Amino acid sequence: MVKRSSPDERREEIAEAVWRVIRRDGVASASVRAVADEAQMSTGSLRHFFATQSELLLFAMTLVTVRVEERIAGIDFDPDIRRAMRQFTDQFVPLDEDRREEMQVWEAFAAAAQTDSALTAVRDETDRTLFGHFRSFVDAAFEAGFLRPGASVDIEAMRLHALADGLASHGVDNPERTNPEVISQVLDAHFVTLLR
Question: Which CATH superfamily is domain 7-194 in?
Answer without folding.
Answer: Tetracycline Repressor, domain 2 (1.10.357.10)
